[in-house]
Amino acid sequence: DIQVTQSPSSLSASVGDRITITCRASQSINDYLNWYQHKPGKAPKLLIYAASMLQSGVPSRFSGRGYGTDFTLTITNPQPEDSATYYCQQSYSAEWAFGQGTKVEIK
Amino acid sequence: EVQLVESGGGLVPPGGSLRLSCAASGFTSSSYWMHWVRQVPGKGLEWVSRTNRDGSSATYADSVRGRFTVSRDNAKNTMYLQMNSLRGEDTAIYYCAREYYGILAGHYSDIWGQGTLVTVSS
Questions:
Q1: How far is B122 from chain A (nearest CA, A)?
Q2: pLDDT above 90: percentage of residues in chain B
Q3: Looking at residues B26-37, what average pLDDT do you find?
Q4: A97 neighbourhood in chain B, CB within 8 Å
Q5: Which of B95, B108, B115 sits opposite A34 (nearest CB)?
Q6: Which long-range contacts (CB under 8 A, 24 or more apart) does B17-20 make?
Q7: What is the mean pLDDT of chain B?
Q8: Residues of B with CB below 8 A from A25's CB?
Q9: Is the pLDDT of residue B105 over 90?
């Protein structure tokens, strides 16, 4: 099975900062890497697909990059509504997998 | 409106069974692979299962393989998750999700339901 490992597990930032979350796959997954935002009581929301493609309607302050085994999600000038848990997900293999999640607090 | 609605959650004793449903509306579910994902309270998202368009093939996480079975009735635009031999660690919110595939876009879940809570406890 292909595992994905996320870091950090949590972080706190301020409006105007730059946040970077990393995700590492246990083997190459090309660009089959997606990012989701999840808030309590809500359905997960797709932010980035294919490592770097911004989902329609998602603010441009969110961006993703990477290929192979190493990926990043960056939030530039985060807003208070970006407080949530963020997950990477590999969709390369028949059995998908999520990272452990990164809880983000925007002060 | 494109949406997924889960139902069937509830309280079940250890060793018991439960069947969850995921009803699709606003799109033809038979055109899409579908997934089940769960979140144990206070923990992260865990991928559970994936089924192809006609329900003839499925894959499962190691933690549920042999106990859970996914199926679908495309005439009813509905997917199911039959959960047997339930354990305390299966207590979670269960979400269903649609898989989108594009040649340049890869595979991802673009539509999610709101989830249904399953509690395994005596």
A1: 25
A2: 96
A3: 96
A4: 47
A5: B108
A6: B17/B82, B17/B83, B17/B84, B17/B85, B17/B86, B18/B83, B18/B86, B18/B118, B19/B80, B19/B81, B19/B82, B19/B83, B20/B80, B20/B81, B20/B83, B20/B94, B20/B96, B20/B116, B20/B118
A7: 96
A8: none
A9: no
